[in-house]
Amino acid sequence: MIVCLFDIDGTLLNSGGAGQAAMEAAFVEQFGPMQPVEGVAYAGRTDRAIIADIFRYFDIEDDDHTRDEFVGRYFSHLPDKLSQKEGGVLPGVTVLLEELASRENVELGLLTGNFRRGAEIKLGHFDLFHHFEFGGFGDIHHDRGDVARDALQETRAFLNRDIHPSQIWVIGDTPADVSCARVIDANVIAVSTGHFSEETLAATKPDHLLPDFSDPQAILELLAL
Ligand SMILES: [Mg+2]
């Protein structure tokens, strides 16, 4: 058996910036007008870490009450922003997921910086959520390596068996996806459909690197399926 743990943004779908727009709408609603934030990176990072950076930038105390309110507002804006922005499922993804899901020796999970609920909203918007029942998410940790550890633990708990890291394939679009896979000694496929070029991703030494998933058969072969 193998387990494929997918990243979301830039790997399965392009939200058209809906996540960032929903965070900005939440911010304006809670704190008032917002100037552009400089120096806060989004790609490959956990939502928890992004929010910590935004709060720090505006000198807002990052306590549980303030943050929970903000996250609730983010979830409530996200569906509208997904509808307004011109995002979409990335090439070949729908066919690839259906193909993988049909295999008895493959399990599909997530390894994402998104909040668990945010992941459900984004994937649900594009009718992909039904493929995923477990994973690691960005609710608590700042470091994606910790999310990978969570994903491994949740994978084992959900499948109720001792999955060895060599059975796991992390699939993502950023250097952080590659490095977090290495934290748990998993295999990794990088795909350059997000913000990072093939050259940048190649330097992080993924096991395999693809321009996109437009040829699902090629991935099935890489996974020896
Ligand atoms: Mg990504």
Structure explained in plain terms:
By secondary structure, this protein is α/β, with parallel strands linked by helices. The protein folds into two domains: 2-15 and 87-222, Rossmann fold, CATH 3.40.50.1000; 18-84. The protein is built from nine helices and eight strands. The N and C termini lie close together (10 Å). The mean pLDDT is 96. Magnesium ion is lined by residues 7, 9-11, 43-44, 172-174, 194.
How do the strands and helices of this protein lay out in sequence?
Elements: E1 2-6, E2 13-14, H1 18-31, H2 47-57, H3 64-84, E3 88-89, H4 93-101, E4 106-111, H5 116-125, E5 135-136, H6 144-159, E6 168-172, H7 175-183, E7 187-191, H8 198-202, E8 208-210, H9 216-222
Helix pairs in contact: 1-3, 3-5, 4-9, 6-7
The protein binds magnesium ion (MG).
Integer-rounded radius of gyration: 17 Å
Could you report the average pLDDT, rounded to the nearest whole number? 96
Report the sheet-strand fraction. Answer: 5-15%
- Order of strands in the sheet with the most strands? 5-4-1-6-7-8
Record field, number of beta strands: 8
At the first level of CATH, the class of the largest domain is Alpha Beta
Helix content: 40-55%
**What's the helix count?**
9
Number of domains: 2
Tell me the overall shape. Answer: globular
CATH topology term of the largest domain: Rossmann fold
Structure class: alpha/beta
Major beta sheet summary: 6 strands, parallel
Ligand roster: magnesium ion
The name of the CATH superfamily of the largest domain reads HAD superfamily/HAD-like
How is the quaternary structure best described? single chain
